[in-house]
Structure formats: C-alpha cells, structure tokens
Design brief:
The chain has 404 residues and is α/β, with parallel strands linked by helices. The model has no long low-confidence stretch (mean pLDDT 95). The strands form five sheets. The protein has a seven-stranded mixed β-sheet with strand order 1-2-7-8-9-10-11. Helix 8 crosses helix 13. It binds MU-OXO-diiron.
Length: 404
C-alpha cells in the first residue's frame, strides 16, 4: 500500500515501483523501489515533504488528495533535488500554485533548472531554521552530500520523526512500506546495505557528520525517501547502527594496486615490473597486480577507490584501450579520487593510443598522473627497468606527496 497513516496527521503518500530492476540507469534494484513522500498536517498549515518521480504522477496526486486539499498545501519541502524526488514538482505546482517551496540554498538553484520554472516560488531555509504548522514544528537540518550538496533533513519535533530523504533509504518494495511489515527481512537488509554502498560509501565523512546530527535527537521514526519507514524497536536502531559501522574510519595503510589487461603478455610483464619498483621503495605497502579480466568489476572498483595511488596498464586495440578498462575507469569515485596519484603504461604494436586515452580520462577525473610509459611490442630489459622506475616514482610520490 503506497498510502498509509504513519501517526496522527502524518501520512505516507508516495508511490511504489516493485518492478524496477535498474535505478538511474546504473543501479541494480532487484527488490524494486518506492518513491516516498509525506504529508504533515498541522492545525493551521499543511506541508508536503519530498515529492515524487514523475512516472506515477496520477497515483501520487490521488494519494495526496486522500489526506488533504491539494490546493491548500502551504509548503512543499524538498530535502533533495534529484529527479526521483522532484520529477513531479512542475506538474504538482499546477495543482497548488500558492505553495511555497522550501529547500537548502543549493537546492533552490537546482530546482529552477529541474522544473524549467524561473519564477518557481522557492525559498532557501538554513540549518536549524524551523516552521510551525500548528502543533507540528518542522526543523531543517543541513546534510550536504547525503546524497547531493543540496541535501537536508526535516525533523518533526513533536513526533520525533526524521524525514531523511535518501539517508537510510533502500531500494526495496513491498505492498506495505513500514519496517514492521517487511516480509523478507534478509532481502531488506541486503537492499539497505546495497543502497548505502552505491550512494553513501563514497562519502563516509559526510555520513558521520549526518549521524552526529542525530545524536541526542529523539527519534521515534525515520521516514526515508526510498524503502520502508523505520520505527523505534523495528529497524530504526539497526539502520543507524549499520550506518555507523559502514562509515567508521578504517586505516588500511598504503595500497598501490597495479591494474592491467594484456593480449600477449607484454603489458602483463610491464605490470609486474611496475610492481617490483613500487615494492622496492615501499616493501611493506600492499601492492598486487590485478589482471582485470580475472576479477569482478565490483572487486576492482573497490580496490581502485580504496587505493592510496594506483598503476594502470593496457595494450592498444583499435586505437584505444579495451572496453573492460573503460568499465573500471567508469567505477572510479570522482569525488574522493581527485588528487590521487597514478601511473599509466601499456605495450603497443602500431600507434599506442591506449596510454594517451587512459591518461586523458584520468586527468578528467582530476587524478594526478605522474608518469606514462609505452612499450613497443615485447618489453626489453631496458623497458622493464623503465617500468621499475615508473613504479618507484609512484611509490616516492605517495610517500613524499609528489616529490619523486
Ligand atoms: Fe533518491 Fe539521490 O535520490
């Protein structure tokens, strides 16, 4: 049931998408998802918290109309502007044109572009500001990068309900979206973990900041924008505890993995020589060679994103690197990898564009490419020595911050 009462005068009015299998083009959603939205009715005013994807607009509108006169909605609170939460906003405004939209300062900028409405009645609210609806007070809490720079939470003080948008969300769908009604707990736990990994694992510092803001706050329920509502004594404590665990600081020491693919073993020989160079400078660091055709992309992207620095090598085929290498680069976390050191290498026969193309892509990601090395056909002993020197360079740069 996409519509249900959460507590006195607070209702879930979102929509369900149980058949969705890929979210936002890239994210597997084997348990479907929901686009949650909430109506908070005060004695004097009514607020809608989070909006919806546009695809189920009619159903969404019907849900809202079950609990309030849509024309009389006073506030539309946008905790986060991504179109799964704002795609329906432009259409919705035709039904409640007098509603004031409240968002973070960053959110106000995005919303006009997302709706293509230059005169959208949107107001920026600041961290700690609140609005009174009459017996329901909604307080805004800045929560940047959870999951975009615009993100904020909305907290209903009287009911102890946190509207957390993506934070504590899960791509999970059952007919009744309350944690105590979840029929397949293992699947829900998997969805919560998968969602965290995909959306928040690049931002552990911001997750910790978000969790710190919950300290001392009375939490009766958490109403995220995807997946079940979490209740005290249900899954609320579990979700908070998991987020603390997953975002905890981990010191793994220096890791400089070497990723390569190789058609005839020449780039592979070069990769092992690069690793020798790394280990000669940093014997205690973790540095392994990974033939990327022999590992899952998830394993490799985790390695590259966790690395202190990395080396990457590819032969040239059809004037380019190979598709599997592009897949690895597509998994690089652009935010946390900026400034990370890398070296690029590869064997070639005719023209050798793979190295150039990899370097260009890494530079787009603001990776600090320290050296590039090309080897013509089969590496000679001189080529292998050059590869060792390349490995030594990335190790030195890692150790001394760019001074090789
Ligand atoms: Fe559910 Fe970041 O949007």
């Amino acid at each position: 049931m996409s519509f249900f009462k959460i507590t006195e005068n607070i209702f879930s009015v979102g929509t369900l998408n149980p058949n969705l299998r890929v979210f936002d083009i890239v994210m597997e959603t084997k348990f479907g998802t929901s686009y949650n939205s909430y109506v908070v009715r005060g004695k004097d005013r009514t607020a809608l918290v989070d909006v919806n994807h546009e695809i189920f607009f009619d159903k969404y509108l019907a849900n809202i109309e079950k609990v309030c006169d849509i024309e009389k909605i006073n506030y539309i609170i946008i905790n986060h502007c991504e179109p799964d939460h704002t795609g329906a906003l432009a259409k919705l405004m035709r039904h409640c044109p007098q509603a004031e939209i409240l968002a973070s300062a960053a959110g106000t900028k995005y919303l006009r572009e997302i709706t293509n409405m230059p005169r959208l009645p949107v107001r920026a609210v600041s961290d700690g500001e609140s609005i009174a609806l009459g017996g329901k007070t909604l307080k805004f809490i800045s929560a940047p990068m959870l999951h975009w720079p615009d993100s904020m939470f909305t907290y209903c003080e009287e009911d102890g309900i946190l509207f957390s948008c993506d934070f504590f969300g899960a791509h999970y769908c059952e007919p009744y979206m309350l944690d105590t009604s979840v029929s397949y707990e293992k699947s829900y736990n998997e969805a919560l973990a998968g969602y965290y990994k995909a959306i928040f694992s690049p931002f552990p510092k911001y997750v910790r900041n978000g969790l710190d803001k919950l300290d001392g706050m009375y939490l009766n329920m958490i109403c995220p924008s995807h997946g079940p509502v979490l209740s005290r004594g249900g899954k609320l404590e579990y979700a908070v505890e998991r987020y603390r665990l997953w975002s905890a600081e981990v010191d793994t020491g220096i890791e400089i993995p070497v990723f390569y693919c190789s058609a005839y073993g020449n780039t592979e020989k070069t990769a092992f020589a690069v690793r020798e160079g790394i280990k000669s400078v940093l014997p205690d660091c973790s540095s392994e060679c990974y033939n990327i055709n022999e590992h899952s992309m998830q394993f490799l992207t985790e390695k590259i994103n966790r690395s202190t620095a990395f080396a990457i090598g590819s032969p040239t085929i059809n004037r380019d690197t190979v598709p599997v290498m592009w897949s690895l680069l597509a998994g690089i976390d652009a935010i946390n990898s900026a400034g990370k050191g890398a070296v690029v290498f590869g064997s070639y026969g005719w023209s050798g564009e793979a190295v150039t193309n990899l370097v260009n892509r890494l530079k787009c990601l603001k990776i600090n490419v320290i050296e590039e090395l090309r080897v013509l056909f089969v590496p000679t002993e001189d080529d292998l020595e050059a590869a060792r020197q390349t490995g030594m360079k990335i190790a030195h740069c890692t150790l001394y911050g760019g001074i090789s």
